[in-house]
Design a protein that fits this description.
Largest sheet: 6 strands, mixed
Order of helices and strands: EHEEEHHEEEEEHEHEEEEEEH
Shape: globular
Number of strands: 16
Number of helices: 6
Amino acid sequence: MEAHSSVRVSVVQASTVFHDTPATLDKAEKLLGEAAGSGAQVVLFPEAFVGGYPHLSCFGSTMGGISQKGRREFCQYHATAIQVPGPEVDRLAAMAGKYKVDLGMGVVEKEGYTLYSTLLLFDSQGRFVGKHRKLVPSAVERVYWGRGDGSTFPVLQSPYGKIGGAIGLESRMPLLRTALYAKGVEIYFAPTTDCRPTFHATLRHVAMEGGCFVLSANQFLQEKDLPPSSSGAEEGKPDAVVCRGGSCIISPYGTVLAGPKHDGEGVLTADIDIGEIATAKIEFDVAGHYTTPSILSLTVKDQPAKTVTFTTSGAKN
């Protein structure tokens, strides 16, 4: 599919409505409408926007045990996660179709009793394209999220270019980035909860290394946005900033086109020229003329990794 050269893109910086998935979806639709109203054709939301990122909480987990309060807190968190496919996915697809945008949405996905940080992709026709599960949860995230596998690396074949993405610190994983570059990603989604300046440096590097446009969306979160049950919140500091955002849009030359935003919720928008990708890759195409397959190569195991495989039909029963 030939890409249109010019496209308007937006990243949304906003907080989840904790423990209220319908209200979070209502907020998402309002913000998506705002972005589309400004002419955006590609829109990205933050990591774990639907379901929430449990800042300041480890669900009562310590070495050797989990508190009863933490277990109850996790049950509430599990209840607000969504199944893929499911009615919430259908609603997000309808939003993408209504506003005619290619959409990336960070969600907390549940499969059985395991949760995942997942990026969902939707096209402007209102179709669910696929999902990417975070491969390795970072630090204390491993208390509450499972690991993804190589079967979830979708690329959205958009009229504006190929769209794919990585979640949070996955953008520091050289081999994962290489797999995305090999798929021809031109618009690189980087939803995150990392608001540190070091992550912004990572994003600029990815843009230049991959010769792609990078869209990064993060939440802006204050303590008053957290659920009352959050075990790490401090009383009397409702306006304290927990996550200060840092959402941005970056060109293949590492030029910051919008952001990073650190002063509250909002929508960042920029006009990008897909033609810049070819001009950037003249000197460096990481998955093309700058490869050395006779020396360095990568094999991606892109089949589902199953712990249990039943060889007999009906054996699960």
